[in-house]
């Protein structure tokens, strides 16, 4: 199911247009790009799901069984380092992510095609937000 969803979102013509834009409009040193990603940490995220043991023996796994607090981090990074970061308790949703982009990141951005003019995001569902897209285009 997941692969079908990913394949459905892929558009070869759009991908080709994007590659042509990259080749035609960018310097090649990466200063135009600002990469944004988020991650989270709770008491369960460090544990391994698989281990190694001798043939026929069970793999011992010791892990904390306390849920604890969850923290999420979002950061914006360029080739020169971090330009914005934020930590929240819990998880990011569309509204929190949109607030981070509009209040902390967009004021540091420049018009295309200068330095810091392109925001690069992954395909996370909280990034699919019409208000966010409108705010970025307006800025």
Automatic annotation (TrEMBL):
Signal sequence bounds = none
- Residue ranges of the Tc1-like transposase DDE domain? 33-138
Q: Which domain of life is it from?
A: Eukaryota
Q: Which GO terms describe its molecular function?
A: nucleic acid binding
Q: Which InterPro entries match?
A: RNaseH_sf (IPR036397), Tc1-like_DDE_dom (IPR038717)
The identity of this protein, by name, is: Tc1-like transposase DDE domain-containing protein
């Amino acid at each position: 199911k997941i692969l079908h969803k990913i394949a459905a979102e892929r558009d070869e013509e759009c991908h080709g247009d994007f590659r042509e834009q990259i080749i035609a409009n960018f310097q090649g040193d990466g200063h135009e790009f600002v990469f944004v990603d988020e991650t989270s940490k709770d008491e369960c995220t460090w544990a391994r799901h698989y281990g190694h043991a001798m043939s026929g023996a069970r793999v011992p796994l010791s892990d904390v069984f306390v849920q604890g607090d969850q923290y999420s981090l979002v950061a914006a990074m360029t080739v020169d380092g971090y330009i914005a970061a934020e930590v929240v308790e819990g998880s990011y949703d569309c509204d929190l992510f949109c607030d981070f982009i509009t209040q902390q990141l967009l004021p540091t951005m420049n018009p295309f095609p200068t330095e810091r003019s392109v925001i690069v995001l992954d395909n996370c569902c909280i990034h699919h937000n019409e208000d966010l897209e409108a705010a970025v285009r307006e800025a």
